[in-house]
């Protein structure tokens, strides 16, 4: 089976992400020490430190030469020093003015050059590596052993199911809940009505309201056999493809899924949608949770039986590549350390419920995790390369390549081009490069003598930036095809590199390395030390350990997360913190029971969900009881089901569903995938650049991607500028999730922050939300479409209003509600018959110029959508 990568960047010297740093022998002879101090260090200090020294704050090209580690690690273009190898030592080429010119304005003397030749050929002995100290941990072996006694650091234990004389419990889950209620002198609330229970099930399992047909069938079945009716509808919902879209979105929250880098330079991830679809498919197929985790940590290392499975595993590792990126970081070592830190943080918090990343700079303040444990994991994550893409620009110093999939699976706009078109793109690229060389010359003229500059001061610098961006986009475009113009299938992924240990860094500072730490796992979570072969990166072993019954946290974490999404709060109310600073479980025995059930049932998420929603506890109503509230105001012991507001995407999908406009098909890719490699600016995707500075400086124009093809008649890239607010009727999980530019329909209702691990979203109630339902164009359009749907079904106003309640609330309207709706319908004053084209942006103005009956019914529909019952789930 072929496992290969395709480079699509011209600049591929990012060694710290893909190679092993070679360290010189720590023991230097007196002659070597004397040679370095007399011949090498003075030259470096005099000629290099002003531009390449962390101490003076200048690290041009990401290269610092004031430490041995910095010299060998190198900068953006590669290692400055490769001991014993002149050809691969970029510093040697630079001081000889080959490819680079250092120092820039003069060449070193032949005598100095001879000294550097001798030094590199003797192995580049460097005493600056001798300053490394050994940092001693304040956490002892005894502390770690004692820490293993903490409840979450022990494996789940089989629990004896309580036995009650009550007839209320229907499952083992109910027995545990009832015992806790009884011990606090509490009683469960009455069961929910069938219609309310069906609505709860539909939203919890598939994120959509029940249809009138579902409601009618369920109520009929309920009258015959309530348990059979419940099991039937649960199995139907679990089998729907919408289940994966609903529960996949929960995982995307914790996986900090987004389709751009965010931060100072926000570039798109046009292949992130593949990971999104992988997650949705995994939940729909009920992939064992243990396998699901292992694929995301080490899918590139797992054994596979087919190219299709290998391709899927590659996409799964996008979990490690999706995080926010500081592409403007000048120091490659700093970027590498921050990247690894983000990967350790998301992996340990999401899968283990402990924040190992807290030990980056010092021993963990609360949990028995020494700093050495962090760097033991850092060695594992350092022994891989991360491929997130992004095209090279003058600002983007951290561009990487992507990975070519072994299976052709083209994106939405991936179409073959002719060889002539490909040649034309290459010719255009060479033209741009020639223009860039000219721009560099003008820039140098400005720097040496501003009077020689053409045009206004700074024009040369601006032109260099614009052309660099144009070249980066053209290179990305060209390298997305093979030699025959056939599109290549890319994915964000990680790949194994040579195994390497990490050095502990004092206070987490890259220029203060201490002792080397062997690769390993957090000791407090391992009953016995886990050895890693020197030939292995340790990542496959780590993945298998995380997704195994030997790990004390994995099953508990997911059982708690499933419980949270069904009952509103977790048994542990800090879903990403199972450490000593997290909250204690309200039902520890039940949590262990569920964790063991999950593992014994082949890590089936659907099986766990099914057992929870078929419990009597889940059937409980949301009825408020003052006495119970006074005893348990936070409802820790589940005396009722806590009402919860529907999430942002569920509200949007519900409006589309009741209007009849929801498109349940999965789109190919996403809006970001259609735009391709792009810069995000104020909610606009600038996905290509035109030739010429004037065109590139034009203000953005909003239009659909298909209105401008990838190439124009003069063989240059045409500007393709696309709004992120393109109207679409797909489910909200397929909307473009661009960091710092979330669609308004999601942002206003507390959508998950995509730069962070979000296990439980915040829920607010703000005036903006009410105004959204009153004035937003999308809401008004859906109310219009819903009104038309009702008019098509009946000409009787009462029947129309009755059907509106069933569609929106999943239940028939009461007589008082029908009277109120009729009163509103009759009293509503239609707007004038003027065209709404130039109308003001208010709800009434947007309705101008339509049939008065339709307008009145639309106003009722909008009022129903804006109601609390539509937004909340009881």
What's the short story on this structure?
With 874 residues, this protein is mainly α. Helices cover 44% and strands 4% of the residues.
Question: Could you characterize what this model shows?
Answer:
By secondary structure, this protein is mostly helical. The chain contains 34 helices and 13 strands. A three-stranded antiparallel beta sheet has the order 10-11-12, with no helix packed on it. Strands 1-2 form a two-stranded antiparallel ribbon. It has a two-stranded antiparallel sheet with strand order 3-6. The chain starts with 29 loop residues before the first helix and ends with a strand.
Beta-strand percent range? under 5%
Instruction: Report Rg.
Output: 31 Å
Strand order of the largest sheet: 10-11-12
Oligomer: single chain
Give average pLDDT, whole number.
84
- Secondary-structure content class: mainly alpha
Globally, the shape reads globular
The span between the termini is 52 Å
**Largest pleated sheet:** 3 strands, antiparallel
Q: Which percent bin holds the helix content?
A: 40-55%
Poorly predicted parts: 1-25, 689-719, 833-845
- Number of E-state strands: 13
Instruction: Count up the helices.
Output: 34
Layout of helices and strands:
Blueprint lengths: L29 H18 L4 E2 L4 E2 L8 H6 L16 H6 L14 H12 L19 H7 L24 H12 L10 H13 L5 H13 L1 H14 L1 H14 L18 H12 L4 H10 L8 H10 L15 H20 L19 H12 L1 E4 L15 E2 L14 H30 L10 H20 L11 E2 L1 E4 L5 E4 L7 E5 L21 H8 L7 H14 L20 H13 L4 H9 L2 H4 L6 H6 L12 E2 L2 H12 L11 H5 L3 E3 L2 E3 L6 H4 L24 E3 L20 H4 L19 H9 L1 H17 L3 H13 L5 H13 L15 H4 L5 H14 L2 H4 E2 L1
Antiparallel strand pairs: 1-2, 3-6, 4-5, 7-8, 9-13, 10-11, 11-12
Helix pairs in contact: 1-4, 7-9, 8-9, 10-11, 12-13, 12-18, 14-15, 16-17, 19-20, 19-21, 24-29, 29-30, 29-33, 30-33, 31-33
């Amino acid at each position: 089976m072929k496992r290969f990568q395709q480079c699509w960047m011209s600049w591929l010297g990012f060694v710290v992400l893909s190679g092993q740093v070679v360290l010189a022998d720590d023991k230097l002879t007196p002659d070597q020490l004397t040679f370095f101090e007399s011949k090498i260090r003075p030259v470096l200090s005099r000629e290099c430190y002003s531009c390449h020294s962390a101490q003076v704050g200048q690290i041009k090209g990401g290269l610092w030469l004031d430490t041995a580690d910095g010299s060998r690690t190198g900068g953006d273009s590669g290692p400055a020093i490769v001991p014993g190898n002149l050809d691969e030592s970029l510093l040697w080429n630079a001081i000889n003015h080959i490819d680079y010119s250092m120092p820039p304005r003069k060449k070193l003397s032949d005598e100095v050059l001879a000294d550097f030749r001798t030094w590199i050929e003797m192995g580049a002995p460097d005493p600056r590596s001798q300053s490394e100290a050994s940092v001693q941990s304040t956490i002892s072996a005894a502390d770690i052993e004692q820490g293993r006694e903490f409840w979450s650091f022990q494996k789940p234990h089989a629990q004896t199911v309580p036995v009650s004389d009550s007839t209320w419990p229907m499952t083992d889950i109910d027995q545990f809940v009832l015992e806790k209620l009884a011990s606090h002198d509490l009683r469960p609330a009455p069961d929910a009505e069938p219609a309310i229970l069906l609505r709860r099930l539909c939203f919890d399992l598939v994120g959509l309201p029940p249809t009138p047909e579902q409601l009618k069938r369920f109520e009929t079945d309920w009258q015959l056999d309530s348990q059979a009716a419940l099991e039937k509808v649960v199995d139907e919902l679990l089998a729907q493809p919408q289940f994966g879209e609903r529960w996949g979105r929960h995982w995307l929250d914790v996986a900090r899924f987004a389709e751009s880098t965010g931060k100072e330079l926000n570039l798109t991830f046009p292949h992130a949608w593949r990971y999104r679809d992988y997650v949705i498919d995994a939940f729909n197929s009920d992939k064992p949770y243990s396998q699901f985790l292992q694929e995301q940590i080490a899918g590139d290392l797992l054994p596979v039986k087919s190219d299709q499975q290998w391709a899927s595993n590659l996409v799964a590792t996008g979990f490690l590549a999706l995080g926010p990126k500081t592409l403007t970081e000048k120091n490659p070592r700093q970027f590498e350390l921050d990247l690894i830190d983000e990967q350790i943080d998301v992996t340990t918090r999401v899968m283990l419920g402990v924040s190992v990343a807290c030990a980056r700079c010092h021993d963990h303040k609360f949990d028995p995790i020494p700093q050495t444990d962090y760097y033991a994991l850092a060695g594992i994550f350092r022994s891989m390369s991360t491929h997130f893409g992004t095209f090279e620009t003058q600002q983007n110093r951290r561009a990487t390549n992507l990975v070519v999939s072994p299976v052709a699976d083209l994106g939405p706009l991936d179409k073959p081009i002719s060889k002539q078109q490909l040649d034309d793109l290459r010719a255009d690229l060479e033209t741009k490069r020639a223009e860039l060389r000219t721009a560099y010359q003008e820039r140098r003229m400005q720097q040496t003598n501003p009077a020689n500059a053409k045009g206004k001061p700074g024009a040369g610098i601006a032109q260099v930036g614009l052309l660099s961006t144009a070249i980066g986009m053209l290179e990305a475009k060209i390298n997305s095809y093979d030699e025959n113009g056939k599109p290549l299938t890319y994915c964000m992924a990680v790949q194994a590199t040579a195994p390497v240990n990490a050095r502990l860094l004092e206070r987490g500072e890259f220029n203060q390395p201490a002792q080397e730490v062997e690769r390993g796992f957090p000791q407090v979570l391992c009953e016995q030390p886990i050895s890693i072969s020197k030939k292995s990166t340790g990542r496959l072993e780590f993945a298998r350990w995380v997704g195994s019954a030997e790990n004390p946290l994995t099953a508990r974490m997911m059982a708690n997360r499933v419980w949270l999404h069904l009952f509103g709060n977790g048994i542990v109310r800090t879903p990403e913190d199972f450490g000593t600073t997290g909250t204690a479980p309200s039902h520890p025995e039940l949590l262990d029971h569920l964790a063991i059930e999950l593992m014994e049932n082949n890590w089936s998420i659907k099986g766990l969900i099914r057992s929870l929603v078929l419990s009597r506890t889940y059937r409980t109503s949301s009825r408020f009881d003052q006495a119970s509230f006074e005893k348990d105001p936070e409802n820790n012991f589940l005396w009722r089901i806590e009402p919860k507001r529907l999430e942002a995407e569920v509200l949007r999908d519900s409006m589309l569903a009741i209007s009849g406009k929801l498109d349940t098909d999965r789109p190919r890719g996403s809006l970001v995938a259609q735009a391709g490699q792009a810069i995000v600016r104020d909610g606009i995707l600038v996905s290509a650049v035109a030739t010429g500075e004037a065109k590139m400086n034009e203000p953005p124009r909003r239009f659909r991607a298909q209105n401008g093809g990838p190439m124009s008649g003069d063989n240059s890239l045409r500007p393709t500028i696309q709004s992120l607010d393109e109207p679409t009727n797909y489910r909200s999980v397929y909307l473009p999730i661009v960091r710092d530019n979330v669609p308004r329909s999601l942002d206003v209702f507390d959508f998950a922050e995509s730069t962070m691990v979000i296990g439980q979203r915040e829920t607010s109630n703000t005036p903006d939300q009410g105004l959204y339902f009153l004035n937003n164009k999308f809401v008004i359009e859906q109310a219009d479409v819903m009104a038309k749907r009702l008019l098509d079904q009946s000409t009787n106003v009462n029947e129309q209003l009755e059907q509106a309640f069933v569609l929106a609330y999943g239940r028939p309207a009461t007589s008082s509600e029908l009277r109120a709706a009729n009163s509103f319908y009759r009293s509503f004053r239609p707007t004038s018959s003027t065209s709404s084209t130039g109308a003001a942006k208010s709800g009434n103005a947007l309705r101008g110029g339509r049939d008065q009956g339709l307008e009145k019914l639309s106003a009722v529909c909008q009022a129903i959508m804006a109601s609390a019952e539509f937004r909340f789930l009881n």
